[in-house]
Structures are given as structure tokens and as C-alpha cells.
Amino acid sequence: MLAGNFAVVALFVLLWSRMGYWIKRVPRPGRDLLFAMGMSVGTVAAMYMAVEIKPGIYFDLRHALLAIAAFFGGWPAAIVTTAIAILYRLPSSGAGLAAGLAGIVAASLLGLGVRAMFRKRATRTWHVLVMACISAAGAALAQYALLPDGTLTIMNALVSNAIINALITSVAAIAYLRSWQLSSERELMAAALRQAPDYAYVKDAAGRFVAANDAAAQLVGKASAAELIGKTCFEVLPEADARKQHEQEQTVLVSGRPVIDQQYELVIPTGETRNFSSTRVPLYGPDGAVIGVVGVMRDITQQRKLQSEIALNRDTLSYALSEMNGGLAMIDGTGHLIFCNDRYRECFPYTGHLRVPGADMRTVLAAVIASGEQRTAPRQHDPAWIEKVIGGLTGDSDEEVQLVDGTWLQIRSHTTSNGTSMVLVSDVSRFKQAQEELNTATDQLKQLARTDGLTDLLNRRAFDEALENEIRRSSRTGTPLSLLMIDVDHFKAYNDHYGHPAGDACLRQVAELLRDSLKRPADLAARYGGEEFAAILPDTDEDGAYLVADAFRRAVAQAGLPHERSDKGHVTASVGVATYMPDNLDRNGLELAKAADEALYSAKAAGRDRVFGTRVAGKERRYGSY
Hints:
By secondary structure, this protein is α+β, with helices and mostly antiparallel strands. It folds into 4 domains: 2-192, Arp2/3 complex 21 kDa subunit ARPC3 (Orthogonal Bundle), CATH 1.10.1760.20; 196-304, PAS domain (Beta-Lactamase, 2-Layer Sandwich); 327-432, 2-Layer Sandwich (Beta-Lactamase), CATH 3.30.450.20; 451-625, Reverse transcriptase/Diguanylate cyclase domain (Alpha-Beta Plaits). It is 53% helix and 19% strand. α18 (589-605) links the parallel β16 (573-580) and β17 (611-617).
């Protein structure tokens, strides 16, 4: 009968261990009730096979199942199993009724007590051992205390029964605990498989689905994973795709080596072609043989699309950077080169090989000085100049530099939002050349606008501006200023007799003689109009002005230009001179020109070919022939 008790306890514990996983889907109250009823039936069965050691006194392994029910099932299971055990024991009565009932209650209460003691901890094996020993010993003591005749024989039997109960309880509880842990792990693995975002499955060596998640089932057009179990890929995929999948899985099964991140295309039931990344790992049995394969598939269609777009954008950017006319560089806040294109390096013939990512621009600029690459760079090492350039490169700046080969570069830098600087380098040599040519042309136009086309002297407009400038300057400095007004004598008669072309030639010769007569760079000669000329003589008093005017008059006469309509027989010129002396600071250009013109009129009235002058002093004018 004792062996039968062993069998009952083992049977019910193992049975529940096996069934525990399959009733996981039953709601918690129902699952607890089933556990309590199972342990109750086991308890009754153990009591049914009890050994009667004395009339009315029975010994069995009921305490093992009672303690296990209380420890693992809690109050609900303890109450149910205890109540059923008591109800079963009561009709038997006998001398050991009270002791038997006390043992039943003690085993359940002590099982609950140990459970409460470790309720905040994960259940461990030693917890079970403590529970087994305490519950067995407590039940035995309760029985002994209530037995009517506590003989030594009875006590020895109780001790033996307690030891056996403790041992059986320990073994059974450890078996149940391990089964419960395995069930929890299996449930956890099943949940992980079921809820995994990727397509996961497990196949046996024959290629049949053993486990899968719903995502994998839906990928091949099935409503749930249950529809895949027991099927092969040939039953759920098109022939070509199934053959490919089967060959790949057989390779893993035969070689025993995993296949990681294998990418391929698959036509899903909707008719859409998707890209997948598949990993297949062989599963080994206890003997080391391959018994199956686990596979995980991931949809990488969007990822492949993004990778293609990134590759296209990268190639486009690389092409744009290589083909752009200007150089592009990125420099961080410490002055180190982060990136540059080939064109940027090509812009610098002597230091281009140094301009690579990671280079310190201070070292590069030191090489610029040493090589003489830049015309505006110092001739000797200059840390201050280097730091100034670094400050411009790592901030916002725009400058133009000229290299030793004559190339002009425009260097623009702009600080980005992340603190780095973008530097754009452009070859503006053609622009600079065009700008210089434009400036030259502009200067020439200005010169033409100021020059008389016939004589190359200043024209009337330029003469008026120059006279006003000299009036202001001489007023500030208190220096003398003289003005010559010149007229070619009897020029109308010369034109009438010799013709206008000859008259133009005559005027050009007179203009050349006037230009030669002015010895200082500050002296200015102008064609005043027709056959009239003028000369501005800064810092020249009346005596100096006379010397210049008379030298010119004599040069014209000595040139011997024939003039048959003149009483002299050759071309002559009359000159009027007007001078502001230093004592007169109240000066006016019109007044000076008018005074010189009046002096010229006097020279012509006096017989021509002579010089007349006047000093303009305040409101008085003094005329005289020199």
C-alpha cells in the first residue's frame, strides 16, 4: 500500500506537470480550481491506499499533496484540498480521527506559511525543500499530539512517515517546480515567437512547420500559424519559391552551418514582389545531430528602397562635387579640414597635397607662407596672420587672394548650424581680368570725355573743373595761381585761305607747342574753344606766368608756320595772363578767367603777338604789357 501511495503522488504531480502547459489558456480562476481538484483527487487516492498501523490509525502520503497544493496554489487550492480531504476522512472515524484531521490542516497551513514567507521572491529549489521539511514535520507533530496512545511504536512510525513525506514532498515539489519553470519558459518562448515583428518559424528535418508566428502564416496567405503546422513549403508557396526555400534549408540541415542575412525577392499572395533578409540556424538534438532549422525573415523592401535612394543621392552628390567649377571644403571650429573635393585641392598648386581631411589648416597656412604660394601672404612665418585667416575660414567672410602664378581666387566661408564652416573657392581670374579691362576702358572713356579730340588737350568742361579745383586748393594753401588765355592771331583768315584741314593741323601744332612750354606736371593745358587755348599754372606768380607765356609766344613765332594773310607772314599767338597773388584769398574761377580774357583782348588790341597780364588783387586789377 505504501508503494501505491508513492505511485499516486508521482502520478498526480507528473500528470499536472504535463497538463499545466495545455491549460494555460484557461482563465486564472478556472486554472486554480482545476489544480485544486487535481490535488484533491490525488490526496483522496493517497488516503484510500493508507496503511493501518493500529485500529483507527492510518498513515499515508496525503501530506505531500496537501503541502504542494497549498504552496503552489495558495489559499484557494489549500481550502479545496483540505476540505475534500477532511470530508473523505470524517466517515472513517476511528481513534486517529482527530490526529488525522490535525495532520491535514497542519500540512496545508504550513504549506501556506512557507509560501507567505517567500512570497516576494522568485521560487527556488531550497524554498521547496524548506516547505517539504516544515510541512512534514509539522503534520507529524500535530498527529502525535492528538493521538490517544502516543506509544514509542507510534512515535517511530510518525517519524518515519514524516521523513518519507518530507522526501516525497521534496521530490514531487521539485519536479512540479521544474515543470512549472519549463512551462513558463515555453510560454515565454511561444509569446516571443507569436509577437515577434519578423516572420519566424521552426521546421523539423523533413521540412515540416513545427512552430510559426501569425506574421509568417499571413506572409504565405494563411490566417494563422495553426494552418501552417505540419505542412511543408511546397504546400503553401508557389513551386519555384518553394523549391528555392527547400534547397536553402537543406543546405543548412546538411552542412550544420547557419546562413545569416541572405537576401532575396519573394512574390507574396497579393502579387507584390517584396525583398526579404533571411537567417536560418540549425537546431541540434541531445546527441548532437541536426534535428531542424529555425528561420527568421525580415521585410527589407523599404530599407532597400531607402538604400537605393541614399546610394543615388550619394552618387549624385559625388558627381556634383567632382564636376562643380569651384572648390568646396568643410572646416570645423578648431580649424581642421573635415571634407574637400578635388577641385578645392586643384585651386592651390603648392599646398593642394596638404589639404586633405583631418589636416590642421594652421599647418597648411604655414606651408602657404613657406612656399610663397600667395602673393599677399607674409614672407616670414607669422602666427598672427595665420590666426587671422583661420578666424575668417571658421566664420563668415568673403575675400579675394592672388596666387603667385597670377591666379585670383575668391574665398567665401559661411558658418553652418552645427558649428562647422563651409568654404567655397572660385577661380575669378577671368573676372578680375575683365574687371581690369573694364576699369581701363572706363578710365579711357573718362579721359576721352575730358580730352579735346583734335589737340588731345583738356576740353572746356575738364578745364572748368580743373580751374575750380585749383581755386579751392590755392585758397586753402594761400599760394599764387595764374591763368593763361591764348588766341591764335588771324586764325579765321588762315582757315579761309588754307582750308579747314590745314587749320586743324595748325591748331594741333600750336597745342603741341603749348604742351612743351609747360614744364611742371601740375601745369594744365586746355583747348578753350575754336582757336583759343588756356593754361592753368598752380603756385605761379605773375613773373613766372609771364616767363611761361612769353616762352610759348616765341615758340609759336619761331615755328614759322606760314600765314600769308597775317602781316607777320607766319602764325603768331597773343596771350593774356591773370594772377591771384597770395594776399588775395577771396578767389573765383569766373573772375580769374574774365581777367585773363580781358588781358588777352588788350594784347590783341595792342597789335597781337604779345603778352598782356593783370594781377587780380581784391577789387582792383592792374593791367600791363610784359
